[in-house]
Each structure stands twice: as structure tokens, then as C-alpha cells.
Q: What sequence folds into this?
């Protein structure tokens, strides 16, 4: 690995700046991911392609579908990078031994997590920009600036519970099985949460089941902004998402320590 | 370099978010506007009970119709409307199109004539003017003096596709006149012009207030009749100059030949009223030709001024009388005071119009409604008859009310039927090229591709009176009410929307004797301004109002599901397009609601046809509950 960045000087007397570490780690990770087409293309392309397909070209109701599906595909879009960058990423790095190498390096563990969260945010932003752009131009989605911005904020911060889920998966799964397993969770969960088609298109029992799935709650939260949600209280959705986050952070910490003992 | 990058990316993102489109009409409270429009829609569509045939919207074919497109006439063509627009209008487009296997509605219009929506080039619009106009196929009104508040409220709607319950309005707002001059006699405080130095400011103010063009009133010092003070020659000259400087048309009210000559020579774009003092002379004809000026003939009002109006005959015609509101009938029956203008004066006006038209001066049709003896809508048809009487060919007359107005006023494509433009048009029975009064035999009216169901009013019946009492306790059933016609579902499906609603009775879990109404539905956006709910029809039908003046208030209990926090109560006056809307907040527990009728602004409690309780604020499923609906 070549250190071509001139901003790094090896003045070891100085205490390293935590911010700088975060920045460098996030930057190198971002560059790495953009250079991994196996990650960047599907995560960016899938939501955009599906949205264009179901939300615009084959829209059943041009007045509401483009707006509704723009929101649900954005949810679909932002949970992708969270699950993949954490889930698959950590699993593969563990398999390659890269994870252990980073662990023994002087870099604090927080940098690892912060950089990956930053990475998720960057990909989320890219997906949001793409979907909003397509929605506005081709789907004639019209929202107030406050709504556009609130939605973007919900999507970006709404990816955090999925970062936690991804982290847990990454620590439990084997490198070889991780991509397939994450896909097996990601795609059906997206569908069952009503991200591909409006939730009320699904049979009643599936709608009930969706209540258990975190993407459903994130989507409902976002749909509230345009008054297209099913009308359950905000606090319910936030609580479920918070509960999932805490549960999976707990599981991840457990998995991390378990791994150490091996 | 790197830090620049860190700044540029957020800036690009901010720019991106600022560029994302917002809904139109963000200045108004958007949802309020939507609700208002949807409510208007709901009323216009509910009058459907009057029309014998199915309304045809959006996509349809009119077959074998005689078509007048605002300039040219085509015999026996098929006109295709797709997605509210004219997909094909002239026979040459037909060849490539095979309609036969199409499943869109077809209207056989053999023996009928399709005209562009008519344009009345001189009205004074207020109150229900624009809905009354549309009821007679007048789809655009060029107002020549009204209050800016009224004008602006309607000017803002004219480019909305869903503005299908009233005519489009263009307005001069306040006219330019002298202190005490014509225009000041109506009791409104209006700005007036004392001298030429005020002209430019006056024009600027009008434009700021939303004037689409400028109207001035002028009477030359040289004129024989000096019945009103008038702005002087220098002022009218300055007004014309200023209007043109600001790219606005200026039209002048004149009532004599000499004033007409002066303003045309000064460059006025048009004169209003065919003057009655003298016959037009060659000098004015030549001036108008040279200056490319037009005349808005207002023979209908001039017939009324000279006590020669034959509009009462029109009122009696079976194809007109059902569609005149009480107010319109009153306006038509009203007369001017006898100004002592000789009967011959009207002949001058008629002959002058004929001579101008023959010479090639553009003539536009205007009614000057609602002056005494005229009313919105019907009086334009009276104007067309009078123009024919003056000697214009039927084609010239039809052009005066369609293509000509569109050519000389900045009103877009209105007045013409063109491919890829909105289908705003009138289908009449018969052939107005042979008999001009056939324009009154209106079969169908489309505004922006949406068929407008003509509103008819039963004027003669006294309204039934309701007293306080239970309307429906919902303990036994939903649809029958203790008084009035009953309760029914109402959704935007009437207007082509897709919203659905379902009414059912639910047993109170605490008290099984008590039941209440559950209104469950889905407000869907198939239609631009959707609604869904139930309506309570008081009279036998939408056109029969009920007198509620002995009733203090409408009361009911209501609660909503978590997704239904707002409701609207819509109060419809008989024959009115515009319900009065009252929004209320719902909670998830039962609450008592009271609407005190006397506190509702602009509500004539003696004439209420329909009270609807609907959801229109938001798209999506909703559910609310109503109990003990009653008058107190």
C-alpha cells in the first residue's frame, strides 16, 4: 500500500488527530468501495432501476405512484449500502485477515465504524440525489423544499439501524456466504416491507407481518412527510427502529468479543 | 485542493435540493387550495343528475360533426380528444388514424356543430359570473372593470387544468377614469386620474394589481354629449403611451364617433361599444385599418340602453330558461333608466358595425354583462344574434366570439381549436352558420377536456322549510334520513377520479342499541383534487334547496382513526358551484361538533341543497365515524 497522500507526515511526537484518522479511513474506504464495482453498481443501480421501472414507466397512478415509490425505493436504496458495507464488508475483511490487521494497528476501533457509517451516508446521499432527480424530472414529483430535505434527512439517518444489523451480520457470517446471505435478507425484507410496491397492495397477513420489519417502519416514517403513510403514530416507528438498533448493537458487541476469544 | 472539494460537494448538494421542484401555487396554502378546488369539482359533478347522458371526459371521439376551429369551418369531421387535448381536429389528420377499433367513448354528432369555447370580450365579472358564463358555453371572459381582489382570485386559476367549473378570467381590473367619471358611479372607491402626469403611475399600479390589459373611459371635449366628466385628451394620450411602454393593450370605452377617432389616432388598440351618436365615417374606418385597431361591439347592452332588448324572448326559450339562475333572470329583467336615447341610435350602432366589418376592421363580441338587461353567458348569445342582425355573416359573427378575441387579446390559445391544445369547446345542436341562435342549443360543454354538466335551477318552487330535529341517528340505517332526500356516498369518481368510499354501521361496544356510521375509504389521486365521503341531500335533487333559516346549527358527533385527523363539511347552495367549506380537526375519541349556520359567511340559509362531510385534505386511506347527525 502506497502512501501517496502528502498530508501524512510521520511526525510521531504529535498526538494524532482523531478527526484526521476518521477522515483518512473514510476516504480510503470510499475510494476502495467506488473501485469495487461489485458493490457500488448494484447498490446504486438497483433502486434507481426498480424505481424507474415500477414508479415511472409502469406507474399505475401517475399522480401518486412516483412520489410514493420514490420514497420507498429511497429507503430500499439507503439500507443497501448499510447492509453491504457493514455486513459483507466486515465478513470479507475478516476472511482476508484485513480486519485483524486493522485491529492491531494503532487506529482506534471507532475509526473503523465511523468511516463505514460515513461511507453509508455518502452512498445514501448519492442514491437520494439520483432518485430525487429522476422523480422530479421524469415522475413529476412536486414537494416543498422542507419536504425534500426532511425526507433526505430521514433516509440518511434512517440507515443507522441497518448499519447495526449489517455489523452484526458481518461479525457472524463467513466471508464466502456473506454476500448471498445479506442478499437473501435484503431483497425479501425490502419487498415484504412494501418498498417495491405500496404496502396496501400486499395481502392483509403480509401487511401484518411487515410490522416486524424495520424497513417498513422507516418507510412509514418517511411517507408521513407526504401524508401517504398508513397513519400510525410516529413514536411507534421510531421506537421500533431504535429497538432494532439497540438489539443489533448489543449482538454486534457480543459477536465481537466472542470472536476475540476464538 | 482537498478542502475545496469538501466545500464544493455540500454546495452542489444544497444547490440540488434547492433545484428540486415545488408544487405549484405555493403562495396559497397549497392544501387549502386543493381542497377548495376539489370541493368546487364535487359540486359541478354532482349536478350530473340533471344531464341525461353520460359525461364524457379526457378521451373521446366526436364523429361526423361540423367543426369550426375559430377560423375555419369543416363539414363532417371526426374530432379526437386524447388526454384532455385535441389529438386531431382537421380532416387531414384523420387519414392516419383508425378509430374504429378504439374503445374510447364516441359521440355521434351528425347535424351538430362543434365550436371553440366562446369568448365574451366585455364583461364585468364578480360573484358567480364565471360559473354562469360557463353554463352557457362562454369559457373565457375578458373583464373590463372589476375589483382586483375578485380578478386576482380567478386569474390565478385560469391556467390550472382543473379549472373546469368556471370560465377563465382576464381582467383590466380598475378602469382609468376621471374624478366623477363613468366607472365611479357604482359606489366603489377607485383611483381616478386628474391629469396626464398621473397616467404612467396609474398604468404601473394596474399592472402590479394584475391587469392583463388597460381599460380607459374617454369622452372628447368636442363631443355633443357631456354626461360624465372625462379624462382629457392629454391623459388618454399618456395612458396609451404608458400602456404600450409596458407591453399592455389599451382599450377605450367611447360612446361617440369623435372620441373614437381621437383615441384610435392616438394609438388605442381597440374601442369598446359601437357608438350610437353617428354612423361610422370613412375617416374612422381608414384610421382603424391603418392602426390595426379593433372594436368590441356591445350591441346587447346598447339594445338594452335604448329599451329595444329582445332578451326576454331568449329567456323564454326552452333551451335557455332552465339554465338561468335566479340572479341571472333578475339581471335580464332589469332595465336601464330611460336616458332618452332615440331608437334610431341602435341602428347607427348596428350599421357602423356592419360597415367596419365589411371594411375589414376586426369586430369582437362583448355583452357588457351584467348591466341591466344583460347577464353572463346568455347575453353573449344575444350579442351574436344582434351582430347577425347588423348584417355580419354568421361566420364573421362566430369569429367575433372565438378566433378574433384570441387573435387580438393576449389570452393564449383560447378561442381556437388546435391539435395538441386543451379541448375547451361547445357542441351545439344544429348549424349556427345557417341559424345563429343554434349556438344556444348547447348539448355539451368541455372545459380543458372535462365535460361540464350544465347547472339548471328550478326557479319557481318555494323551498321546503326544515326545522330542528334528528337527521339520522344511524341507529337503524344509513341512507334514509328523517328529513330530506337522504344520505349517499360521494367521491371524485363523478369527475373521473378513483377515490372510493364505503359506508357502514358499527355497533357501539358499550351500548348495543347505539350504532354509528363508519365512513371508510381511500382518497386516491386519479383525479387532480380528490375527495371521498358522504353527502346529505336536503331537497329532492341537487337543484332543489331547502330553507334552513329556522335551524340554528348542524350538529354531530365524530371521531377519526389515527390517519384521519381532519374533515371538511361542505355546504352547497342551490345551483352554486362553490360550496362553503368548513374544516374541522378530529380526534380519536368521540366529540361533539357544532356548525352554527348563521356564523357561516356568505351562506344563504334559506337555500341549501346539500351538506357533504368528506375527506379531501390528504391522499390515502381514511376512516372516520359520525353519529347523531342533526339540526338544532
A:
Amino acid at each position: 500500500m502506497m502512501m501517496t497522500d502528502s498530508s501524512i507526515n510521520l511526525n510521531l511526537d504529535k498526538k494524532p488527530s482523531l478527526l484526521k484518522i476518521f477522515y483518512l479511513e473514510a476516504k480510503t474506504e470510499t475510494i476502495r468501495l467506488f473501485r469495487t464495482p461489485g458493490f457500488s453498481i448494484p447498490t446504486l443501480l438497483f433502486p434507481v432501476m426498480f424505481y424507474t421501472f415500477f414508479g415511472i414507466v409502469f406507474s399505475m397512478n401517475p399522480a401518486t405512484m412516483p412520489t410514493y415509490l420514490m420514497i420507498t425505493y429511497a429507503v430500499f436504496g439507503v439500507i443497501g449500502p448499510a447492509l453491504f458495507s457493514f455486513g459483507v464488508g466486515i465478513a470479507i475483511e475478516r476472511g482476508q485477515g484485513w480486519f485483524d490487521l486493522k485491529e492491531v494497528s494503532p487506529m482506534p476501533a471507532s475509526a473503523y465504524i465511523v468511516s463505514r457509517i460515513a461511507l453509508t451516508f455518502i452512498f445514501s446521499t448519492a442514491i437520494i440525489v439520483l432518485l430525487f432527480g429522476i422523480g422530479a424530472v421524469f415522475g413529476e414529483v412536486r414537494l416543498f423544499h422542507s419536504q425534500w430535505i426532511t425526507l433526505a434527512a430521514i433516509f440518511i439517518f434512517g440507515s443507522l439501524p441497518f448499519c447495526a444489523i449489517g455489523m452484526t451480520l458481518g461479525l457472524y457470517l463467513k466471508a464466502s456466504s456473506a454476500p448471498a446471505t445479506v442478499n437473501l435478507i435484503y431483497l425479501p425484507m425490502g419487498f415484504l416491507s412494501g418498498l417495491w410496491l405500496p404496502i396496501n397492495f400486499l395481502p392483509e397477513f403480509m401487511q401484518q407481518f411487515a410490522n416486524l420489519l424495520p424497513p417498513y417502519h422507516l418507510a412509514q416514517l418517511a411517507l408521513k412527510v407526504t401524508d401517504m403513510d398508513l397513519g400510525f403514530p410516529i413514536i411507534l416507528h421510531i421506537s421500533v427502529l431504535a429497538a432494532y438498533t439497540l438489539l443489533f448493537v448489543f449482538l454486534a458487541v457480543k459477536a465481537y468479543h466472542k470472536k476475540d476469544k476464538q | 485542493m482537498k478542502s475545496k472539494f469538501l466545500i464544493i460537494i455540500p454546495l452542489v448538494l444544497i444547490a440540488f435540493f434547492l433545484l428540486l421542484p415545488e408544487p405549484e401555487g405555493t403562495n396559497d396554502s397549497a392544501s387549502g387550495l386543493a381542497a377548495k378546488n376539489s370541493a368546487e369539482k364535487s359540486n359541478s359533478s354532482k349536478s350530473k343528475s340533471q344531464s341525461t347522458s353520460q359525461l364524457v371526459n379526457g378521451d373521446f371521439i366526436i364523429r361526423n360533426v361540423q367543426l369550426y376551429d375559430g377560423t375555419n369551418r369543416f363539414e363532417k369531421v371526426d374530432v379526437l380528444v386524447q388526454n384532455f387535448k385535441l389529438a386531431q381536429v382537421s380532416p387531414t389528420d384523420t387519414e392516419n388514424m383508425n378509430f374504429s377499433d378504439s374503445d374510447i367513448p364516441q359521440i355521434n354528432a351528425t347535424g351538430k356543430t362543434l365550436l371553440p369555447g366562446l369568448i365574451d370580450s366585455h364583461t364585468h365579472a364578480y360573484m358567480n359570473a364565471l360559473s354562469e358564463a360557463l353554463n352557457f358555453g362562454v369559457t373565457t371572459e375578458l373583464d373590463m372593470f372589476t375589483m382586483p381582489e375578485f380578478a386576482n382570485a380567478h386569474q390565478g386559476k385560469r391556467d390550472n387544468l382543473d379549472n373546469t367549473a368556471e370560465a377563465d378570467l382576464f381582467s383590466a381590473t380598475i378602469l382609468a377614469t376621471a374624478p366623477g367619471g363613468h366607472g365611479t358611479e357604482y359606489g366603489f372607491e377607485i383611483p381616478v386620474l386628474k391629469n396626464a402626469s398621473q397616467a404612467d403611475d396609474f398604468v404601473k399600479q394596474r399592472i402590479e394589481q394584475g391587469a392583463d390589459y388597460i381599460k380607459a373611459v374617454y369622452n372628447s371635449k368636442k363631443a355633443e354629449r357631456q354626461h360624465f366628466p372625462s379624462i382629457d385628451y392629454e391623459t388618454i394620450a399618456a395612458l396609451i403611451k404608458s400602456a404600450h411602454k409596458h407591453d399592455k393593450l389599451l382599450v377605450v370605452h367611447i360612446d361617440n364617433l369623435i372620441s373614437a377617432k381621437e383615441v384610435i389616432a392616438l394609438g388605442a388598440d381597440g374601442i369598446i361599444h359601437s357608438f350610437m351618436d353617428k354612423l361610422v365615417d370613412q375617416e374612422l374606418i381608414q384610421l382603424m385599418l391603418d392602426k390595426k385597431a379593433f372594436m368590441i361591439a356591445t350591441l346587447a347592452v346598447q339594445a338594452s340602453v335604448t329599451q329595444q332588448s329582445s332578451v326576454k324572448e331568449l329567456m323564454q326559450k326552452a333551451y335557455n330558461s332552465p339554465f338561468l339562475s335566479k340572479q341571472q333572470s333578475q339581471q335580464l329583467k332589469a332595465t336601464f333608466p330611460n336616458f332618452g336615447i332615440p331608437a334610431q341610435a341602435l341602428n347607427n350602432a348596428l350599421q357602423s358595425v356592419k360597415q367596419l366589418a365589411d371594411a375589414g376592421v376586426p369586430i369582437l363580441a362583448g355583452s357588457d354583462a351584467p348591466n341591466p338587461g344583460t347577464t353572463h353567458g346568455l347575453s353573449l348569445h344575444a350579442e351574436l344574434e344582434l351582430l347577425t342582425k347588423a348584417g355580419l355573416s354568421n361566420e364573421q359573427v362566430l369569429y367575433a366570439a372565438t378566433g378574433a378575441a384570441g387573435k387580438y387579446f393576449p389570452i393564449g390559445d383560447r378561442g381556437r381549436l388546435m391539435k395538441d391544445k386543451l379541448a375547451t369547446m361547445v357542441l351545439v345542436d344544429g348549424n349556427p352558420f345557417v341559424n345563429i341562435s343554434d349556438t344556444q342549443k348547447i348539448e355539451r360543454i368541455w372545459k380543458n377536456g372535462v365535460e361540464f354538466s350544465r347547472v339548471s335551477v328550478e326557479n319557481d318552487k318555494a323551498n321546503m322549510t326544515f326545522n330542528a330535529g334528528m337527521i339520522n341517528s344511524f341507529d337503524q340505517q344509513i341512507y334514509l334520513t328523517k328529513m330530506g332526500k337522504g344520505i349517499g356516498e360521494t367521491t371524485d369518481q363523478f369527475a373521473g377520479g378513483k377515490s372510493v368510499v364505503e359506508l357502514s354501521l358499527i355497533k357501539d361496544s358499550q351500548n348495543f342499541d347505539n350504532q354509528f356510521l363508519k365512513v371508510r375509504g381511500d382518497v386516491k389521486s386519479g383525479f387532480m383534487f380528490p375527495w371521498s365521503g358522504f353527502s346529505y341531500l336536503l331537497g329532492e335533487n341537487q337543484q332543489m334547496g331547502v330553507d334552513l333559516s329556522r335551524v340554528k346549527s348542524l350538529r354531530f358527533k365524530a371521531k377519526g382513526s389515527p390517519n384521519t385527523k381532519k374533515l371538511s363539511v361542505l355546504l352547497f347552495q342551490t345551483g352554486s358551484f362553490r360550496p362553503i367549506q368548513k374544516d374541522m380537526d378530529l380526534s380519536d375519541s368521540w366529540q361533539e361538533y357544532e356548525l352554527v349556520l348563521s356564523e357561516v359567511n356568505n351562506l344563504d340559509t334559506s337555500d341549501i341543497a346539500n351538506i357533504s362531510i368528506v375527506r379531501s385534505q390528504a391522499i390515502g386511506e381514511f376512516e372516520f365515524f359520525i353519529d347523531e347527525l342533526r339540526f338544532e
Residues 121 and 157 of chain A are 8 Å apart (CA to CA).
